[in-house]
Design brief:
The protein is of the alpha/beta class. The protein is 37% helix and 15% strand.
Length: 450
């Protein structure tokens, strides 16, 4: 398609957006509730609630039956795969549903442990993980290492280190630890604790050059940035829809060649067809119905230029999209341009305000010149209060934040904050407002007596 003009991303209509989320109207002790807990799970729009309820009301059935509600369930599953295929830019048969990212990663690690390429993992083979990652992309590989050693295979997990001063991945260290023995690199797209975005495309390229698979945890990145698995060329990518305005479900992308070649870790798949052979038992149909609704919600965010469902290709950027781009994918691309613009404006304001609070430390990237490499997720500590004490005082004023390690335990241990309560985490998403940021800064100053 020819590009005739380049338009700036539109400003999000926060009034219209927030009206779609019933939970945002809550109060705490007379204060409007402020949801800065997005990294632990975002709120859901009414259309997701309706999709789940309507499925249970009208279509509740097992799949594969020769009757109406079962056929409608089959159609719903097909539609949800197509929605996630648009969200990730892949084929629908490369989408696998599961309870959550952690379960899917354990499942896939067991299958990968059975065989990579034309042989099983063997003595001397290596898996590379990082200090920056959520434990869900570390523990499955450590468990695989333990199993392999018990079975005499001697597989070793190695660690890529970080730069402590700004909590960024040491890519040179990662590259130096890649070798002919490396069979898989497990990497997070973005840190759920400190917000660092990793150079995934470059890391995938390095992994493939060493002959290794690339397994990407995109759980934290998914609500903040566009994911394009075709451009990344990763072998696997996992995310959780409850982190981007949907139900509590996990989604795995796997290249078709891998899903066909590897053996699922179960006794007897009822079908050899992908992706069904990778899905255990009866799926959570009602929540999968909500997945389509949450993807459509994101696609409809680009309100300035109409909804994706009106058949248009949406607003075009300065880069041509392939002719096979679906209308919904084009709308998702446009929506994330607007999300990025809004969230980064909030993040800039928040970081600038936090820097003005004495004895408050921000972990992660704080240089505005490098903000392209961080999500609007901030980990902080103050001298006067533990993270739990600070989170509790903020809750009294209506602010929902997280304290602890958020399963980024390797990072909190490495930074020597685990034993003293980890961090206080403030997570922004696109339904948050400038006024909420300003109120948080005022509340912190009040609590700290500034």
């Amino acid at each position: 398609m020819l590009i005739t003009e380049t338009l700036a991303p539109p400003t999000l209509d926060l009034t219209q957006i927030r009206a779609q989320f019933p939970s945002l109207a809550q109060t705490v002790n007379g204060h409007p509730a402020v949801f800065f807990d997005g990294p632990g799970g975002t709120q859901v729009p009414q259309r997701v609630i309706d999709a789940i309820s309507n499925y249970l009301r009208h279509n509740n059935a097992n799949s594969g039956g020769a009757y109406a509600t079962s056929r409608r369930t089959d159609a719903m599953l097909t539609e949800a795969r197509a929605a996630m295929a648009d969200f990730l830019n892949c084929a629908a048969d490369e989408i696998v549903f599961g309870p959550n990212m952690t379960t899917l990663t354990y499942m896939m690690s067991r299958a990968i442990g059975r065989g990579i390429g034309d042989r099983d993992l063997g003595p001397g083979d290596e898996i590379l993980v990082t200090r920056l990652d959520h434990d869900a992309n570390v523990s499955p590989w450590l468990a695989l290492e333990e199993d392999c050693k018990r079975n005499g295979k001697g597989v070793t997990v190695r660690w890529a280190e970080i730069h402590k001063e700004d909590c960024t991945l040491d890519v040179e260290d990662l590259a130096a630890k890649l070798n002919s023995k490396t069979k898989l690199v497990a990497i997070g797209y973005a840190s759920n604790a400190v917000g660092t975005i990793n150079p995934i495309k470059e890391i995938v390229r390095l992994a493939h050059a060493a002959g290794a698979l690339a397994y990407v945890d995109a759980v934290h990145y998914a609500p903040h940035g566009l994911i394009d698995v075709a451009a990344l060329d990763c072998d696997f990518l996992v995310c959780s829809t409850y982190k981007f305005f949907g139900p509590h479900m996990g989604v795995l992308f796997g290249k078709r060649e891998h899903l066909q070649r590897l053996r699922p870790y179960k006794v007897r798949p009822l079908t050899d067809a992908v992706p069904n052979r990778w899905e255990w038992g009866t799926l959570n149909h009602e929540c999968i119905a909500g997945i389509t609704a949450c993807v459509d919600y994101i696609a409809d965010l680009d309100r300035t230029h109409g909804t994706w469902s009106d058949g248009r290709l949406g607003r075009q950027s300065s880069e041509a999209r392939p002719p096979e781009t679906s209308p919904r994918r084009a709308a998702i691309v446009a929506a994330f341009e607007s999300i990025h613009r809004h969230e980064h404006a909030l993040m800039n304001r928040l970081i600038a305000g936090l820097k003005g609070i004495p004895k408050l430390k921000i972990y992660g990237i704080t240089d505005p010149e490098c903000f392209a490499w961080r999500c609007p997720t901030l980990a902080i500590r103050v001298d006067a209060y533990s993270p739990l004490q600070l989170a509790t005082k903020l809750d009294e004023r209506g602010f929902f934040t997280w304290d602890g390690n958020y399963y980024a335990v390797n990072l909190t241990e490495h930074l020597d904050v685990e034993k003293s309560g980890g961090f206080l985490r403030i997570g922004l998403v696109h339904y948050n407002t400038t006024e909420e940021v300003d109120r948080l800064l005022a509340a912190l100053k009040e609590i700290l007596g500034i």
